[in-house]
Amino acid sequence: MGRVRWGVLATGWIAERFTAELLDMPSEAEVVAVASRTRDGARAFADRFGIPRAYGDWASLAADADVDVVYVATPHSAHREAAGLCLEAGRAVLCEKAFTLNSREAEELVGLARARGGFLMEAMWMYCHPLIRRLRELVADGAIGEVRTVEADFGLAGPFPPSHRLRDPKQGGGALLDLGVYPVSFAHLLLGEPSDITARAVLSEESIDLRTGMLLSWESGAHAVLHCSLDAATPVSASVTGSRGRIDVPDGFFYPDRFVLHRPGREPEEFTGEGPRDSLRHEAAEVMRCLRAGERESPLVPLDGTLAVMRTLDAVRDRIGVRYPGE
Fold it and tell me: Model's pTM, two decimal places?
C-alpha cells in the first residue's frame, strides 16, 4: 500500500484539524472524499481543503471503493451509526472518542469489525502521543515502583448555553463523555479496568453532568482520583504516584510537551517532546502503519481497552444517574 486514501465523515472543527494534519503528510496520506448530512456542507469543506469528492450522505462515502479508511468525526451519539455503515461497506474506521454512547454500542461495533475482518480503532490520540508512550514505558519498567495513585482532571470554564451540544442529552452531552473520557482512559492505560467505581456529579436542568468526580479502585490497592467539568477550568494535569517515585504531567496531560519524574535521592528528570504538542498525526500514522502491516487493530489503542473504558463510563453514569434518550 502506498499513500493511504482517507475519507472524512463530518465537517466540524475536529474534522478540520484532522484533515489539515493529513494534508501535511502528503507522502503518506491523501484525503479523497468527505461526507456530511448536507451536500452544501460537504462541498464547502471539500473546496476548503481541496478534496475531490463531496457527499451529502454518509452511505455514499461508505460505499466509495477508492476510500481505504474513514475518519468518523461526528458527535459520539452518531458514532454507532456512522462507523457501522463504514464497517459494513468494508472500510477501515478511525472513530473519535468517546467511542460510542455506551458499552453496548461499542460491543456492537467491535463485534462487527471482528466478524468482517475489518480494521477499527478509537481516535484516542493520547495513547499514540510519544511522551505518553514514554511515560507508560517508564511506569511499566518500574521507574516509580508499584503504582499507588493516579490523579487527572479535565475541566472547561464554559459557560455553555443549554442549546450547546455539550448540554444536549440527544447528542450525548455532559462532561463525562466529552472530557472525562481522557482522565478515565489515562487511568486505564496505567492500571487497566478498575474493580470498584464510586462517582458523584452535579447535573444540569437537562440531566447531563456539569461536573463529575470519580474514585476508581483496583484489587492491587491502587486508586485513581479523577474529575471533569463543563463549568470550571481545571489545571488539566495528571500525576502518577508509585511506591518509589512520582511522575507529574503539569498541564494538558493528554497532549503533553513535558513531564517530570521524581525519585527519592535523585534530581527531578524532565522529559520533553518534539514538534507541536497537539498534533493529531501520531494517531493517523498509527492507523496507516496498521493498514500497511495488515493489522486489524492497533496495539497502542486495543479494542478490548476501548471496551473496558466504555464499561467504566457506563458505570460512572449509572452512579450519577445520567441516561440518554433511547437507552
Answer: 0.97
